[in-house]
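User: Please predict the structure of the protein below. I'd like the answer in structure-token form so I can feed it into my own downstream comparison script.

Assistant: Understood. Taking the following sequence of 345 residues as input:
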Amino acid sequence: MAFPARIRADSRIPLLQALKTSVAAVLSWFVCLAILPNQLPIFAAIAALLVVQPSVNQSLGRAVERSAGVVVGVLLAFGAGLLFGTASWLVLAAVVVAVLLGWALRLTPGSAAQIPISAMLVLSIGAQSPEYAAARIAETLIGAAIGVIVNLVLVPPVVLQPARLAVARLARDTAATLEDIADAVQGRRSRNEVEAILVRARELRDARTTAEAAVEKARESLMLNPRRSHHRGTLESDEEMLARLTVVTTRVVGMARALRDHYDTSIADEPMARAIGTELRRAGHDLRLLVVDDPRRHTGDPAPEPTALTQPIQVAGPSDEHWVLIGALLEDVRRVREEIVGTDS
């Protein structure tokens, strides 16, 4: 019988991360047994399991959350035990107080959840003594530290490829939309076809959001990563390209909206329509060049394919019924050109 979809992820975590989590838990267990032999180091193993994350930066953040939550939760349980003894209702009361305490202190979800868990475990498992409380805090800190160290030493993951693919996909989709607009300006399209162009252009916003999230994830994977200097240039290149695409996609959506609002089939008869369409296709061509390797770079020819955008086109006066659309497209073409070839080109 298949597992319910709600408890299954779209993809497995990397096997390396699963192995690192196991190593961290085992190491923290035996280290704490050697240092604190009187109790099973459950807190240390839990800390190690939670701290190993996809990036070193995330591991450090989770270690701080886990440690802060455990310290507060253990101290809360210790104080409650001193005041009220070992009554069974005390566990439930401590959980409620811990939840409200996390809310009052405006703690992160990780720290806020850890307070009641730690308080409940201490009250359920151990005696309320200063030595026991100190030992639980110590083993949590040991487990968290081992989790961070394991994630740092055992090949910290660098997730640059998804960011590069997302940025390249955004560029290709933007180029395709530019070509769609060029076809509509130079040809005769139905109202439904023009509306479909605007729908596809608006989808670029989702693609841009996806690319931004992928770049942010890549940036986070390099923080505190010992290999960050080797990959910094790649990330900076993707960040720069995404910044340029942000401007371009905004302009493309504006073009598509103007086209939808002011389009009629007679636009193809305007003298400027063919020139604008040509420049839009050239913009799409050059946009692809920014993210796709030229095949000649792998065949021994060092000369890259030249960009196709020309100098700004000469403007002829449009008719009264089309001047708004022609003017809007010309301004957007100018801005797109600046982002692709540079303002000084």
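That's the full token string. The chain has a mean pLDDT of 78.
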